[in-house]
Write the structure tokens for this entry.
Amino acid sequence: MPGTNLLSSSSLRTKQRGAALLLALVIALTLAAAFLFHPSDPGGGNYAREPATEEALAQAKAALIGYAASYRDGHPNEVLGYLPCPDTNNTGIAQPACGNAGETMIGRLPYKTLGLPDLRAAGGECLWYVVSGSHKYNPKTAPLNWDTRGQIRIQDINGVALTDPADNNGGAVAVILAPGSPLAGQNHPSGAFNCSGDASNSITSYLDGGYAAATPGALIVVAGQPNSSANNDRLSWISSRELFIPIARRSDLPGTLLTQLTTCLNFTDSNHIPAANKIAAGSKWVADSSGIDEAITQLGCVLDAPAIATWANWKDHFRYVVCSTPTANCIQVNAANCSGAILFGGRMTNGNPRSAAEKAILSNYFDAANVTALTTAATAFTGNVFYSGTAPQTDIALCLQPAPAKLSFQDNFSDLSSVAVDFSGQSMVSQDASAKTLTLGAANLSGSASGSDPAQLFGCNWFGTTLPFGTGFRAYFRYRITNRGQGFVFAIADADPARNPSAIMCGRGDSSLGYSGLPNDGNPIPGLTVAPINYPKIGLEIDTSQNIARNDTNNQHMAIVYWGDPTLDDDDNIHNTPTVAATGSPQNPLAVTRSIVRNTNVYLHVRLEIIRSAISSGHRYTTKAWILDILPPDFDLLTADFDETIASAQIHATGDIADLSAGQEALRNIRIGFTNAASSAASSDQTIEISNFAIQANP
């Protein structure tokens, strides 16, 4: 059913487990006693004269089903459905391990482990027990789920199958046997144990089928007849199908796996799924469990132990869908726009375990609409948003959100474009594609530009790709000054085509830092057409010179700058301006002294976090900024806010930016870049290396 993803609290999970366990036990006891008892005499005539045997077998069966249905409650890092090993020491206690992986084992019923009294058949003998290698608890085999078939065939003394691993019930996963009176060649010796015999448990002394203690692969167990001279053992069995009836009704069957997978795969894209593990289906990729395994590995997701166990046993029920375009919402999950989906195929409608042939057909896992969307260009998925114990056959469909919009020098360096006037091969910005570094300024530029108007000494560098501002972003870069000059600005500009239609934009030189004003004061520049950086915009100014006219407090400061008075050209980086806020224009805050901003030949680390929230007139921008000379842990990690108990931000600023007009949202999409400038004085020459830049939108 449509809804939101369920993130269960630990207390809720505890209540679910307790309720589910009680439900499982009640169901198991009721069904075992009333419906699920499989007598070895199908006609029932002889059993009517041995009610004690019938009752003992029914109690044992109910206890085994209850054990499997609650196994995870006592073993939290495992899945539901496992059965105990037999008692091979005649103690009533299950062995901690039995045989090799996959071997079907025989021994006495571990009644103490099951919390049962000393159950006896009508003749006074203790019960015996066979457990399929597919379902025993140690050593385990995987997968164990509602499609896992037993390895035991039950047939009557005439060879007619009563259940078989290939039938609709999936064969027997456990058999409880009540030995009849000794036949020729058998002996039920007395001993020092509660049950007759000794610790060796001579199977052939009690059971008539000639069974070995351990059987690899399939085992045939014969249901005897009470008066038979060849086999008088009576038995009851548990089929694969009926074992999972109470388990399937547990609302916590998947545990926390669905939540943990959603956390792992949310806000990601298809780049972490190798081509060999995904199939194109319209505008999306579809991956099976192998693709999810690769995604978990490449994303570095850490599932806890219970989730790992659930995944190992249920992974074939999952499909992962992700849009081909990383930031797109290309599909709908329960009518919600999503960039991906996690799908879980429910139980077969008839409750039967799937055969190998049925597992190869997608429609045996998923509803018709989801099969269509998984295999064609269709985009609509439907299903529950949590597992339902009352409708285990229903698909689960969970919405994944788009990958966060992001840019970085590492992945997008070729997307950068430079804007600067060239003076004898010197310009105010340059790029090194091999090192993926950006250099602002140039040494000896003032000599090359001798006699030039300082307004021309600007340099800007912008990504061509725009980003949605959304609810905000986090950014990190480091810089190193090798020649100190004016400083620079990390700039965010509105990408509205009517305001800043391209990345060919910059401000004037000198103390405008390439951020404010008109390039060359609006005068033509031979060979270069460049637009100003129109408002609305936000910048982090890192200033290494002082200009009193711009309200600089000193030559070592950092500041958030907006755009001053929109009617003026060159006040965008004047601090404390406008003193009376112009319509829609936040006031540029005062600069903050930060002496290390001028340090040369060392890397300084910069982080900027902006949270964008809606207000009645537009949006509020809450900004934090740091400049540190030592990189603390997670300072460059952009998936979460930085912990200010490690290092406090030097800037905390808030600015309200009004919408430009009705329906025209300011800074809806943004351009990201760096600006810098010099004056004609040789002392303003600068070279600043920018590296390791990355910006990522908040979820």
Observations:
- DSSP finds twelve helices and 32 strands in the chain.
- The radius of gyration is 37 Å.
